[in-house]
Design a protein that fits this description.
The C terminus is likely disordered. The longest helix has 25 residues. The chain has 12 helices and 10 strands. Helix 1 packs across helix 9, helix 2 crosses helix 9 and helix 5 crosses helix 6.
Length: 316
């Protein structure tokens, strides 16, 4: 098979594009595709400081590398989730990339910020680990953007990610979530940072190929908390459809964003306000993050009382 651009021996076939590329041409193709996404969706503007959420995995390092090569002024933001056997490796890969390229990096430890690592938070609140983790990430990333004066936060969500989330939300008709599924989430409140997803036209497979060809040392392991997650099932279903009908994945998401999402967003009547506890944005008096943290603290206090009571019981 020959490269569709230069006729050299192809290294990767992209059936949804009805094309194949050699290594150098694939790198050029992917970087141009991301740049076209940024421009068409008006995600980033020249001279803007960009906070890039970086886990150390393939997608976030792929994104940071592309933005770096395209000349954007980027700062990495890494959340150490405190997941034993997983988080240290992701942090190591992130710090190594930043050091190699002389890029600024902010690291925040969830346990240091909240008093609980993600596994502890899940155990105390009895929430699925991914639920508490996602809520913590959104809260802490937005706060980092505000405190650092960044006008935009870029995340490494790829086409597989957004298509799987869309599939799940449609399956359960989560209209509120569907109305917010856009490549760009504008700052609709002074306490919100604009969030963008430049990799929405890049598949997981393409991100892996890009990292390998660029020699990026990324964290390969999947989060242990993701085992059995429904999002993985949704990805598998969509990939099966994609194998039979190349291009379905991209069409599913892009046509939704073009034809249905604007109608859903137009019907949204949510009023935003500032949380009475932390000042971050919420729709009620207290935001979901503060409610979650209060629940975790209450469990800790109750356990402390039980421990003291047991210790104070006199010996028979």
């Amino acid at each position: 098979m020959k490269c569709s651009t230069c006729q050299a021996k192809a290294a990767i076939e992209l059936r949804r594009h009805n094309a194949a590329f050699c290594g150098p041409c694939f790198l050029t193709h992917l970087e141009r595709q991301v740049q076209r996404t940024i421009e068409s969706e008006r995600m980033l503007h020249p001279g803007e400081r960009v906070l890039v959420a970086v886990s150390g995995g393939k997608d976030s390092l792929c994104l940071w590398e592309i933005l770096r090569r395209q000349g954007y002024e980027t700062t990495g933001f890494h959340l150490d989730l405190g997941i034993g056997g997983y988080s240290p490796e992701g942090r190591k890969k992130t710090e190594a990339y930043a050091e190699r390229h002389g890029l600024p990096l902010q690291v925040t430890e969830v346990k240091e910020e909240t008093g609980f690592a993600i596994p502890e938070l899940a155990e105390r609140t009895r929430r699925p680990p991914c639920s508490g983790c996602g809520l913590s990430k959104r809260y802490l990333m937005n706060r980092a953007g505000l405190e650092g004066g960044f006008p935009v936060l870029a995340t490494g969500h790829n086409l597989d990610d957004v298509a799987a989330v869309l599939f799940g939300n449609v399956l359960h008709w989560q209209l509120e979530q569907l109305s917010r599924m856009t490549p760009v989430r504008p700052a609709t409140h002074p306490r919100l940072v604009k969030t963008v997803k430049p990799l929405i036209r890049v598949t997981e497979r393409e991100a892996v190929a890009y990292c390998l060809l660029r020699g990026l040392d990324y964290h390969e392991d999947e989060c242990p908390n993701a085992v059995g997650a429904t999002s993985l099932l949704y990805k598998d279903i969509i990939n099966q459809i994609e194998a039979v009908s190349p291009g379905s994945k991209q069409a599913f998401y892009q046509e939704f964003v073009k034809k249905l999402q604007p109608r859903l967003a137009a019907q949204e009547t949510v009023t935003l306000r500032e949380c009475d506890v932390c000042g971050q944005v919420t729709t009620g008096e207290v935001c979901a993050y503060c409610r979650m943290m209060e629940r975790a603290r209450q469990v800790t206090v109750r356990r402390g009382r039980v421990t003291r009571t047991v210790l104070e019981v006199p010996a028979a």
